[in-house]
Amino acid sequence: MTKRILSTVMLIGALSAGTTAFAQEATLSKKEQKAGWKLLFDGKTTNGWRGYKTQEAPGAWKVENGALFLDTDAKKAGAKGGDIMTAEPYENYELELEWKISEGGNSGIIFSVHEDPKFGATYQTGPEMQVLDDDKHSDGKIHKHNSGDLYDLIAAPARYAKPVGQWNTAKIIKKDGKLTLVFNGHKTAEVTMGSEAWDKLVAGSKFKAWDGFGKFQKGHIALQDHGDKVWYRNIKIRQL
Fold first, then answer.
1. 3-state secondary structure of 8
2. CB neighbours (10 Å) of residue 13?
3. d(CA 197, CA 87)
4. pLDDT tens digit string along 68-111?
5. Closest CA to 127 of 233, 32, 214
C-alpha cells in the first residue's frame, strides 16, 4: 500500500472515529434550544444527578461512550448502587431519552418521585415506564410489564422494543396531570394522574395498598437500578 493511500485510509478512519465520538456527545440543536429543551445529562459526567435521599450519585452509575451506564460489575466490587435521579423535581414537561438493556435485563424510568423519610425508594411514589429485555426476562411474560408499558397499570398495544443491544427511544409527556407515554414512536399509554380512571388503575394493580404511590404531581425523574446493566443517553427535557 502506498504512503498516499495509507494516509487516506488513516484520515478516513480518524474522521469516522471523530464522527462516532461526536454522535455520542449530548447536544441540542439550535431549534431544540429555541423550543426550550435542556439536557439532563451532559454525556460526560453525572452532574445534575444523585441518589434517593442523598446528595451523591451512586458510584455504580458511570459514563460510558456518552451514555449513563449502570455498572453491575462495579457494584459487585463494592461501588454503591441504587436508583439515580435528577437533582431537581419537575411537574409539567416533555422528557425524551434513549435506552438499551443487557440480555435478560430489567430497569425503568420512574417519575413524580417524592422524597420523604417515610418512603424508602423511588418506586414507592413514582410510576414507571418499563425498560426490559421482553424476550428473556421473566417479566416479559407478565401483562403490563413489557417495555414501554406504564408498569403494572397500562399495557402497550403491542411490543415495540428493539433487540437487545440496540437503542430504543422513550418519551414521557406530563401536563397538568395528563400523562402520555411514547415508545419507539408508538403511543403506549395515556391517562390523567389523579383522575377516577387513574385511581381505578392503581386499585387494580400491585400498588393498591401503597400509601403515596402516584399521588404527587411534582417529583424527580429516576433511572432504576434493578440489578442489571443498562444504558441511557440523550436525556433531555422541555418544561411545559
1. helix
2. 10
3. 31
4. 999 999 999 999 999 999 999 999 999 999 999 999 999 999 99
5. 214
